[in-house]
Structure formats: structure tokens, C-alpha cells
Amino acid sequence: MTQAFKPVSVAIGDLVAHPANVRTNSPETYASENIAHLKASIAVLGLLQPLLVQKIDGKFGVLAGGRRHAALLELAADKTAKGFTNRTKIDCRLVPDDCDVTTALSLAENITQAPMNAIDEFEAFARMMEVDGQTPETIARTFGTTVAAVKGRLRYGLIHPDIRAAARAKLITLDTMKAFADHPSQEVQREVFDALTKEDSYLQAYTVRNALKSRGVQVSDDIGAFVRKDYEARGGAIAADLLDEHSVLEDSALVETILLEKLAAAAEEARAEIGFAWADAVIQYDYAAMADYGRVYPGPVEPDEKGSRRVDEITAELEKLEHEMENEELEDEAYNELYERVDALEAEARDLQEAYGKEDLARSGVIASWSHGKISLHLGMVRPEDKAARSGKGTGAPSDKGAVDGDEITYPASLTEDLKTERAMALGAAMAMHPEATLDLTLFKLVTDVLTSGMGVTQAIKVDARQEYRTHAKMDEIDGTSLEQVAEAHDALDLSWADDAKSPADQFALFRALDAGEKAKLVAYATAATTQSCFSRDRQRDSLMYDFEVEIMPDIRAHWTPNAALFNRFKKAWLLKILGEELGLVQEAVTLASSTKKQVVEFCDKLFAEPFATLTEAQRAAVAAWCPPMMQTAGVEPVDASEAETPEVETEVAEAA
User: Fold this and answer.
1) pTM above 0.85, yes or no
2) Which one, of 535, 578, 575, lies nearest residue 553 by Cα?
3) How many alpha carbons lie under 13 Å from residue 546 in its C-beta half-sphere?
4) Cβ(159)–Cβ(241) under 8 Å?
5) What positions does the domain ParB-like N-terminal occupy (predicted)?
6) Residue 369 has what DSSP assignment?
7) Cα 443-508-506 angle, rounded to 5 deg
């Protein structure tokens, strides 16, 4: 419609606001901060779209384009803006005086006016650099944005023209086009584009990125950052990008050579320090390929007098640090520092109390690999040709589980008390969810306490109308499953009788009118609140509660899930032992042995929150059933996932711990 309107040139000073403009009543639209980018764009590129105007009292009212008008007025008033004064004429389209659709025209333009095409925007930034000699810094100042934002847009503007043309023609998506910016070389971009379009007419962004990875290594990748200094020193070719982190080390062979050299140096350093017979390096440690290798582990040794004193000092300091880590008011930074200190002390104590036997050193070695952005050392590896039958004599090596037995999992008193509380909460949830059984237990407890002499048949619950007070050092961090289940049970209660405005007699009358099922729910909910802090029962000493808990809570994991709050209070060695021996995640335990305790805790937290899809059936069952042994009832048989592994692989967890 606007194309039929007569083109006119109007001086900026002759333009006024039109009362029919739909944005007239929104002055914030024209505020300086809201039109800064538009003003900068007009200053650099000019007015790209004419204003729609109509004559009003000898002036020209801006019917559509009020923000552009406001930007032009600011440019005319800005003494530093060149080429803009009140006399500067700009292109407009004149709406006839007798047109009765002015408001509709204004609304239509403001709603339907589309922003600049994304590809046009990318190309415009690139053209400003190539033709106008602009720099990212000057463009950023002009448009009131950051240099990084400008460079990010410029990168897309420098994608090969043929690829941009394909995106413009909608042969590929904009996201796919952007993926080609992962490599700065237009020649490489075009080669990959041609190769992929021959194989498949429909390209996806991830396919492009994977293909570009074979054409070099970005300096922001962990390997690229690790080798870059040596790579540049050897004159390796670099495809420079406007954003340095996207520059690419083009000689992949040289990158691999340097990485292997660094891995070999790290392996040799470890070999010399420990005394192994050989050292080797691989970029990626392939567990399947290494299955034929054996492995030996350091065995326990008696430290000398000086070493013994140091072990005692470390033990005392670790106890102190574990106590400090239980402080809920600790800031994250301080907590992480304690973590690192605990890791360092545990490693020092292990070195003082463990050593490889001479015979094992004579036939074993170390392999260095690249894992999770750093060098990982695999110690005590035995080549297939050097493997010997394990006689258990004269090797200096511990038995399959000897290396970890010296660091058995124990539970400090504070953690023990808190786990008792969590178990009581889980048991309470189970009782509330089994009202008939709990009602029977409550009545049985009440009757037998009265009719029998001496100690009652169970001390697990109290029938004195008092809710049990439960203490816990980290109540706000524990798993909330049991609390949610109890809350759901409460919401399901019929409390119509519990009207404070009524007398106790009236409340009792209403209570008696409830059906038996509703009464059972109420009694079960109240009894659940009286459960005392507890661990699993001894069948001989408390047969009643032992059998009752097996019935209503055969698996505590239905009401409680281990989380970071628990794992934070375990030693790193305990967590590795649980992963490798109790869950069957031997390879994961070995890999995590070189990680910090914080990283191990994060891994365990994610594992139990949502078991990984890569787990075997045995591992998944072990994760689903695991809990500290004194918390589980006898209703579920313990799962030993480690039985699914071969004996040779099983022992790898020894080093991990």
C-alpha cells in the first residue's frame, strides 16, 4: 500500500509527531536509551526505510516511523554527528489528506515491520570493516555494544558467500550456517560444505561441527589450549578468527605429536619417581583395548618413626577438618578449600603407608592418557607378555581387595546420628502410607504395655501423645522424599472433626463417626510422628519391629535417596570404594581417582538422582538398592554388582580408593 504514496523529501526540521501514530501515547518508546542503536545505525548506514507522513498545518506529521523521527531529531541536535541538521532532507512517502485509514496504516507498519534479515546484518557488519575501514572497537562504540558482541556477529558475516547464499535460499537453516563459523577458513568451510551436500541434501548443525573438527583443533578446546604454546613455537599454521578462542590449529598431526610428547614426558616423570620398569602414552585410554593388561597395586607398608608421627598428625588434622566441614555457615569458597586440603592430606597419608613391591615394579609401568581436559596416569599396568599367575607370594602386592581394606568405610558419630534421623523419617513415611498395619501396631503397643509387666514389647514408638523431636546437622540439605510422602498423607486426612471452635466432646463425636479407614489413617499419621531415631533392628533383640519394618518398608530407597549432603561427609576413598566394589562401576572409580573429592561427590549425586543410561542391569540394580547398610531393612537382598566384572578388572578399584 505504501508504494502508491507519492515520494517526497522533507527537512528534518519540518517533521512533527502525528496524533494518529499509535505510539504517540507511549513516550518511553522514544526515550534516548531506547533508540540509541537506531540512532547509531542511521548515523552509519543512513535512513534505510522512508517515513510515512501527512501534511498537518504546514508541517509533515510522521504517521509511521516515530522512532526513526526521534533518532533523526537527536542526530540533528548532536553537534558531533556529521551530515545531520534541521535542514537535512530525508526520504518520505506522502499520505493524501483525504485518506481515512491513517491509524490503520501506522499500526500496520509498526506491527509488520520486520527487523533486518539476520544474514544481511552479518554481511553489513563485515562490509563496514572491509569497505569503511571500521574496527570492532569503533563499531562497538557506534552501536553502544560490546566488542565481543560485534566480533560474534562479524564471524557470521565472514562465512563463505556460497554458504550464506544457501541459507538465504533456505537450502540450509540459519543454525547450520552459523555452525560453519567454527572454522575461520572460508576455503575449509566450502570444502566441508561441498563434501556434506554430496552425501546428504539435508545438513544439520552438529554434522557440520563434527566435520570441521577433523580439519583442525580450536585453541579454546582443552587440547588446543594445552599444546598451543609449543605448536606456535614450531611454526604450526593457525587459522585466525576475529574471536581468538575460535582460532584453529590447522595441523592436526602436529597437535597430536605435541600432545603425545607431553603425555610421554608425564609418564616418564611418574616412572622415574615411583620406579616402574616402563612408561607409555596414549591420547585416549581405551578400556576394551587394555583388557589384556594386568595391574598391580601398592601394598601396605609400615612407615618409619618419622612417617608414623606424620600419619598421626594427618589423622588428627583430618578429624578436625571433617568437623569444620559440617559447619552450615561455611561459604562455598571456604568449603572448597577444605575439600582440597582433605584430598592432599589423604594422598600424603596413602603415600606414607603404601608402596609397590620390588617384583611388581620390575614388570609394571605407567600409561599417561588425556582425559577430561587433563593428563591421567594409569599406574601399575602389566603388559600381557609380562603377566604371571598370581601366587600371592613374593610379589609385594596386596590381595584383590587388600589395598582398600585398609581404608574401610566408617561412620563418624555425628553422621551416624543424622542417618538415624533420616531413617526414622523414612520409616514414618512408610507407616503413614500403611495405615492399617500401623494402627494394629499402635493398638498392640498400647495394650501390651498396660497388660504386661516390665519393659514393653518395643521401644520404637511412644504412645504418650508427643511428637518425636528429630535433630539433624544438615536438615535443609537431606533428600526430601519422605517429607513429601508424609505431607501427601497429611493432605489425605479427613480433619473435618478437628474444629477448634467445637468442644472436645463434640470433636470426639465427629471423630467416632468417621469410617474405620479414615481413623486408621489418622492414627498411622500420628504414630509415624512418634518414631524415634533408629537404625535397622536386630532380629533377636527386637523381632516385632524387625518384622514390621520388613513388611511396610522392604526398601528404604522408596522413601529416601542418597544425595550430595551424604556424600560430602564421606572420604573420597570411601566414595571410590562404594563406586567400584558395591556398585560395580570399576572403570569409573579408576578414572575418578585422579579427580577432586568435589568432582567425585558431584558424580555420585548425579548417578543416584537419575541412574545413567549406560549402566548395565546389574549396576542399575545396585544403584537402585544402595544405602548405608545399617539403614536398610532385610526386605531386599543386597546387590553385589561387582560380581558382574571379571576378577582382573575388579582389582582396579584398589588404586582408585
Assistant:
1) no
2) 535
3) 9
4) no
5) 8-111
6) E
7) 175
* Cross-strand partners of 54: 61
> What residues contact 3, with CB distance under 8 A and at least 6 apart?
none
Written as one letter, the residue type at 168 is: R
Phi (first) and psi of residue 570, to 5 degrees: -100, 150
Q: What does DSSP say about strands 294-295 and 374-382: parallel, antiparallel, or unpaired? A: antiparallel
User: Position 576: which residue type?
Assistant: L
What is the per-residue burial (b if ≥16 Cβ within 10 Å, else e) of 370-383? Answer: bbeeebbbbbbbbe
Task: Give the mean pLDDT of 348-361.
Answer: 86
* 631/557 Cα distance (integer angstroms): 10
Distance CA 58, CA 298 (A): 97
Contacts of 302 (CB under 8 A, 6+ apart): none
For residues 85 and 64, the answer to whether their CB atoms sit within 8 Å is: no
Q: Whole-angstrom Cα distance, residue 648 to residue 291?
A: 9
Do 378 and 593 form a contact (C-beta atoms < 8 A)? Answer: no
Using alpha carbons, list the distances in angstroms from residue 185 to 131, 172, 217, 254, 653.
Answer: 20, 19, 13, 18, 46
> What is each CA distance from 201 to 5, 330, 434, in whole angstroms?
44, 57, 60
CATH match of 6-112 with 3.90.1530.30 = yes
For residues 65 and 166, give the distance between their C-alpha atoms in angstroms, rounded to a whole number. Answer: 33
Place of cell 539476520: 118
Kindly list the domain boundaries of the chain, sorted by start residue: 6-112, 156-252, 261-382, 432-533, 556-625
Give tens-digit pLDDT for 199-258.
666 788 888 888 888 788 888 888 889 999 999 999 998 888 766 777 889 888 899 999
Q: What cell numbers appear for 609 in the block?
A: 538422582
Which three-class secondary structure state does DSSP give residue 527?
Answer: helix
Instruction: Give residue for cell 594386568.
Output: 294
Hey, which residues does 370 pair with through a beta bridge? 375
If you write DSSP's letter for every residue of 18-85 in order, what string do you get?
-TT-TTTT-GGGG-GGGSHHHHHHHHHH---SPEEEEEETTEEEEEE-HHHHHHHHHHHH-TTSTT--
pLDDT at 644 over 70: no
Looking at residue 132, its pLDDT comes to 63
Short-list 560, 563, 565, CA closest to 485 = 560
Q: At what angle do helices 516-528 and 481-491 cross, to 10 degrees?
A: 150
β-pairing, 354-355 vs 364-371, is unpaired
